[in-house]
Amino acid sequence: MMAATPVPERREAICEAVYELLGEVGYDRMSMDAVAARARASKATIYRAWPSKPELVMEAVVSCLGGAMEPPDTGSLRGDLLAQLTRACDAAKGDDGAVIVGLLSAAARNAELAETMHKQLYESKCALYESILANARARGEVGEGADPDLLHELLSALILSRRLGRTGPMDDEFITRMVDRVLLPVLRQDT
């Protein structure tokens, strides 16, 4: 639990400074001194509110990228998957995607960051995938065995692989192919 909470304007300035620095120098080279200087805040203020660098970074990411997403509800599983994969690809294509890829790379070397990222970027989205599949079950499009965790992992892996491998654009053709040839067949295998 946080010992002291900076006023909302200070908190926002600190989160923005962190996010900017992540994009410029990455997690490993981002220092609390640099955050304090950029946000015009004292290191004491930062350390009182965020006792660890991973906590500070994750709050900045959530603050800058927004909170939980509403699940798409297009009326069909295919439409929902197309909408969700499109949103995820749009985020992954730009600077936000570069920040997340950099954090994932750093998390491979930092257990505390990996655990914090898992909670904030993975667990926080579980309800979204559960909702997509609950709607699909209610419409009779998938069986009870359709696994929201598997959907989440597959969707994330597809995007990360495409972003890191630079094997082509994350365009409508890619999105449609992944939904029709990967996600739908996997989710419907026990229907």
Task: Provide a descriptive summary of the structure in words.
The structure is a single chain. The chain is mainly alpha-helical and 191 residues long. Helices cover 73% and strands 0% of the residues. The protein has 10 helices and no strands. The radius of gyration is 19 Å and the shape is elongated. The termini are far apart.
What would the keywords be for this entry?
191 residues; mainly alpha
In CATH, the topology of the largest domain is named Tetracycline Repressor, domain 2
Order of helices and strands: HHHHHHHHHH
End-to-end distance = 45 Å
Radius of gyration: 19 Å
- What is the top-level CATH class of the largest domain? Mainly Alpha
Q: Which architecture of the largest domain per CATH?
A: Orthogonal Bundle
**Structural class by SSE content:** mainly alpha
How would you characterize the largest beta sheet? none
Provide the helix percentage: over 70%
Strand percent estimate: under 5%
Instruction: Return the domain count.
Output: 2
